[in-house]
Each structure stands twice: as C-alpha cells, then as structure tokens.
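User: For my dataset I need records formatted as: sequence, then structure tokens, nothing else. Please produce one.
Assistant:
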Amino acid sequence: MPTPRRTTDYRVDPFDLRLFASVLELGTITAAAEAMSLSLAAASARLKGLEALVGARLLDRSKAGAAPTAAGRALARHAHRVLAELESLHVEMAGFGRGLRGTVRIACNTAAMSEALPPRLGPFLVRHPDIDLEIQELSSDAVLQALRQDAADVGVVADHVDTSGLQARPWLRDELVALLPLRRARVSAPRPLRFAQLLERPFVGLPAERGLSRFLLQQALRGGRVPHHRVRVDSFDAMARIVAAGVGVAVKPRSAASRWQDAGVRVVPLADAWARRHLLLCTSAAGAELPAVGLLTDALLDDLAAPGAAARRSQGR
C-alpha cells in the first residue's frame, strides 16, 4: 500500500504558482521565464519540481509551446484563486504595517442596521479615517454565534438572547410597535395591541431572511400561527407607504414608525413584553483587545453620554 501523502507535504511555493500561471497566460516556458526574471533552465527546473510535488504532469511541452494537462487545468483554477487571495492579504497587511488601516467587523440585528447605527457611524468614520467598517445584518442569535466564532468583532443584539461568555453592555432602547392604516385603526388613542391580534390581519414585512422577520416568525410560531404576508419589501419606509395604502399591518422599531405618524398610519404600542427591549453592544474578549474595536465601542457608548443623548436614546425606541 502506498504511504498516504501528509498535508505538510503540499508546500507549494507561491512563486511557482505564479510561474505556472504565467506559462498558461503567455503560452511558453521561455516567455514565462523572461517575465519572471528567470533563466529558461531555472524556470524548467521549478516547473518540474512543482509537478513532482503535486504528483502529476501539469504541462504538455512541445516546440509550439506548453499547454496544460487535465491536472494542470485543475491546478490553474486553484492557482488563480490562491494568488488573488495572497495579493489581497499582502495589500491589507501592508496597510496595517504602515499604520494606515484597521477594519472592524460589525454584526447586528435589523433595528441596529436600519435605525440605530447609520446616524452614529458616519461621524465615527469621519473622525477615524484609518478605520474601515464591515457590517452584516443577522438575527440576534446569529450575531452571538459570529462573535463566538471570531467572524465578527462587534455585535449589536436585542436583550432576549444569552450573551454568556461575551462582554455585553446596554446601549439603546429598542421598542417594537405596530403600524396600522390610519383609516382602519378604529381607536381614538393608540391602545396597546397584542401581537396575536395583529396576526388576524395581513402583514407587510421585510424579506424573510432579515433578522426582524425571523424574530417575529418565532413569536408567531409560539402561538401556533404564521403571519400572512401580502408583500415583503426592503426598507421600513417602503413598509410604511404600503401600510398607509391600507394593504395590511406591520411591526417595526418605534424610531422607524414615528416618522410616519402623520402620514396615513397609526403607531400603536405592542402589549407583549418582548416588544420592549434594549439593544446590547457586545464584544468577545479577543475582540475587545483590538484598538479599533475599542475606539468604535467607546464612541457608540460615549454618544449616549454626550449633550442631547436623552433625545437620541429615544430614537432607538
């Protein structure tokens, strides 16, 4: 029985991958050697070494040039991807080496993505031109999973989830409210409604994969119900326009709903306890040690302590 090749045997030199890719691009080993500042003998030796390393012939050599074998074509697919990733790695690391750049990965729920974060991230980015942000919207549970798997540096979640093992600090109030067509509200004052009462009506919602949609579906399923969505749209404002037309009802953060209070809709509190919650600002222990993460979380928390913070806190409701 042949001895299985160990993973550590596959030590492919990126230079050899570039040489191999150059042969395929230019059509001859001679042209590739010149492009890579190698002698023809040195280039040929490196290509033969690459073939020995992978255990297969990669090139059909002839007087007309060099063409990839089936194994060569397979290697080419991987080589292009690996070289592109290495180039990206070198560019990003060079930025860090020069002290130019840091990237903070933020994972957040729908309320944070659509309402709480945008007005606060602009000033932060202006103050810190050396820091970039990558933002992904997930359900609160998925945000915590991303933090625990080191796929995110900062997370913003609702306080109904288990944040054990993470650093979690209260940030903003996040009250969910119902949005009803004004002409069908039937009440002179916005009396609280239970979410179960809304399920008797057609819904206008966000796409099913959005964090708020998944959360509301979970609440409905607890009562053995599934919301009937007449339509799903990509933004809170689009939801409000359709609700105002009388199509159905919606659930959204109060900050997003209040903008439409006098535009053909009625904002009604939800009586369910889960509708009144806080957004938590979360980091893992490792993420909290990153300077850029510290700058961002301090800025978000300091924003609440600044003059006018009480008014801004109410915008998170």
